[in-house]
Structures are given as structure tokens and as C-alpha cells.
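Closing statement on the nicotinamide-adenine-dinucleotide sub-project.
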Amino acid sequence: MLAAALDNSLRAFAPEDLIPRRPASLDRDRVSARIGGQVVMVTGAAGSIGSELCRQVATFGPQLLVGFDQAETPLFYLERELAGKFPALAFQPLVGSITRSGDVKAAMEQHRPAVVFHAAAYKHVPMMERDAFAAVENNIFGTWQFALAAAAHRVEYFVLISTDKVVRPASVMGATKRIAELSIGALQNKSGTQFIAVRFGNVIGSSGSVVSLFVEQIEAGGPVTVTHPEMRRYFMTVAEAAQLVLESLSLGKGGEVLVLDMGEPVKIIDLARRLIHLSGLQREQSIKIEFSGARPGEKLFEELNLQGEHLAATAHPRIRSFRQPGQLSRTSMERHLRTLRQAMKSRDRAGLTQFFEHLIPDYCPALDLQQALPPSGQGTSFNPVQHPATQSGLAVPVLQVPVTNLP
Ligand SMILES: NC(=O)c1ccc[n+]([C@@H]2O[C@H](COP(=O)([O-])OP(=O)(O)OC[C@H]3O[C@@H](n4cnc5c(N)ncnc54)[C@H](O)[C@@H]3O)[C@@H](O)[C@H]2O)c1
């Protein structure tokens, strides 16, 4: 429907054309050593990042590629696409949820993957602000369950797809993904599964991204809504992101967070102007840009901060890494998760916010969540588990670039 309504100029453009191209080099031998001839499982395989990971993994000749996702129809299309592009590939689509223990256990027992890329998650910031418990269930408990199963089934490498929204999170989505990072860190030990988190910013053209929203608005004759004239985001293409995730797998030793260099942040208003321009002269003259104001959980700038003191260089120029100080033990993570389950059971929003604040000292909740907090933290189901290192929560690295939250 979308494509049919667009004129030729806009239909012909690729989202990648909107950002400077910075092709990433890939050490195919190093990646091949980890996934060639192996059983590789991708969760969220039908999504933007998961499906691109499947396409790229397919080029390394895995013994079997398992695509796990709860979205049946997109998985159906992925299977067809992979069959057409890679006739020799053994691909197994699996319809299931990371939050259902039976699905997770069956997937692991049946296929015994050597490598898992975990891309299944809820990611839409304003929606997850409203439906915080769904984000917690999926992004925290789903990840924990999948990671536990990976460890129990002796998966060699587990790669969590993370996001720049975990840095000083201003959203429930960012907070849940940060806790997902912490939870895989708690399962890390030298002799078992090696857990690696890979963080990056926005993928241009991914499902529900700002570019597809702008295209729809242009198709409808405008206006194009930009939240704030100064709003900026880091962007990379999905192919670039997946390539650097594979590279991260090849470099990861376990227990670290790898941070991708996203280049320079792009002003969202410039993206809007460029898209309107690409849509043709007639539209350029008639389509207006309106400022809508930031939505709950949105920041003016995201941080990636490749100059952060804690980041160390790796063998790849666009990947840096750090180890989280004061890593939680598995036992204390389990205690934290039991506390969180209580807040979930009683649908206690204030308790949830306090839980995030306790575990992530730099969490900066959206205004509506702050207002949900009772004075002095009383009257919630929250009963904090003290972290031995800080007695006030877990010390997480605060990377060294200032952030400006929207008022
Ligand atoms: N898209 C981006 O710009 C971007 C940038 C950085 C990081 N990330 C992170 O990458 C991850 C994936 O993002 P995406 O853009 O591919 O999202 P997406 O929505 O396109 O894909 C997510 C996939 O996960 C599946 N899924 C969700 N919950 C599931 C569950 N319980 N069980 C099984 N499958 C489930 C969905 O069906 C979907 O196919 C997210 O964690 C996101 O934060 C995305």
C-alpha cells in the first residue's frame, strides 16, 4: 500500500541513502571460526535485526540456522526468502516465545545451538512506557529465561542485542534492556557459556523507525512531525549493524559489553527535510514540518560515548569494549528478579520504578512514572536487595559524555 502511493523518486530511495555510508570491514575468517559449521540460533529472527543476522549468518555455512520468533507470518516470509537466496542452507523456523519456558526448553533440547544471537525484545519506547510490565516480562524475564537455558545447554556464545537507550536510561525500555545486560553478566563464568552484549544506536529503516513513519506522513500529504528541532540520533544501516554484531561475536571473550562506533549523530529534522526533498518538488513545496514535543521516555540525545574512560579498544576499529564493574552474582540477580516478580504480580508501577532506580542508579524515569512514586518510597511492594559493592544499588559505569534530557 505504501509503495503504491509513493511517487517514483521516493520509492526508489533506500533508507541508507539518508546517512553517510561507512562500510564496516568484516574479518570473515574470524567470524567463520565461531559460526561456520555450527548450529546457530537467532531469537527475534523475524524482526529487522534478527532477520538480517540470519541473512548474514547464512553466508558462513552454518550446520543449521534456527530462527526463533513468536511472529508466525514474518517467520514464514523469512523462511521463503532464505530458501530462495540460500538454497543450500538448513534453516529451521521455530514459532515460540522467549517468555514460555516450554518453548525455550524445546528449542534448546532439540537443536543444541553452539551460538545464540538474542534479538527478541519489545523496543518501542513510548508504548513500553505505557505498558511497562510487558516490557519487563519480555526484555528482562524472557532474556533471563533464554540465557539460563543457554547456560544449561552448554551454548558456547550468547550474544545479547542491546541498545544505546540503556545508557542513563530515561525509558522503561532502556531500563529493561540494561537489566537484561546485567542479568547475562550475572550468568558469566569462565567455564560455561560466554555472554556478550552488543550495544548500538538506531538502525535506519528498521521496523517502526522514524524513516518509515516519515514516509507514511509524506504519503498522506503531511505534515511531517519531528519531536524537537534539536533531536539527534545515531544511525547505522541494518547490514552494518548485523556485520558488526558478527564481528563482536568473533572478538568477544565473555562477560563484556561491546559498543559499536555509530559515527556522528544525525539531526532528525535534517532526515525529514531530505526525505521531503526526495519526494519531489510538488511535495517539497506543500509538506510542512511540525514539532510535536518529546514523548515520555524520549531523550533529546542518546549517548554512546566512545570516548568513555572505561572503554577499551578491540582488534576492530569500530568496536570498543568494557567489563561491568561490581558485577552481580547469579544468586543476587535471582533475588532481584524475585523482588521484581512481586511488583509485577501486584501491578505496582511505583515499585517498579523504585526497582529500576535501585538497580540502575542513573535511571531517570519519565515524568509520569516519577509522579507515580509515593513520598519517601512508602506504600509499594518494593523491598530492595542491597548490592554488597555499593549498599545502594549496583555501580554501573557512567560513560563520560553529558546528556540533555528533554524538559
Ligand atoms: N531497530 C533499531 O534501531 C535497534 C537499534 C539498536 C538496538 N536494537 C535492539 O535490537 C532488538 C531487536 O530490534 P528490532 O529492530 O529487530 O525489533 P523488531 O521489532 O523488528 O524485532 C523483534 C522481533 O522479536 C520478536 N519477539 C518479540 N518478543 C518475542 C518473544 N517473547 N518471543 C519470541 N519472539 C519475540 C518479534 O516478533 C520481532 O520479530 C531490540 O532489543 C532493540 O532494542 C534495535
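The pocket of nicotinamide-adenine-dinucleotide is lined by residues 43-44, 46-50, 69-71, 74, 97-99, 119-121, 123, 138, 142, 161, 163, 177, 200, 202-203, 206-207, 209 (CB under 6 Å). With this model delivered, the sub-project is considered complete and its resources will be redirected to Aim 3.
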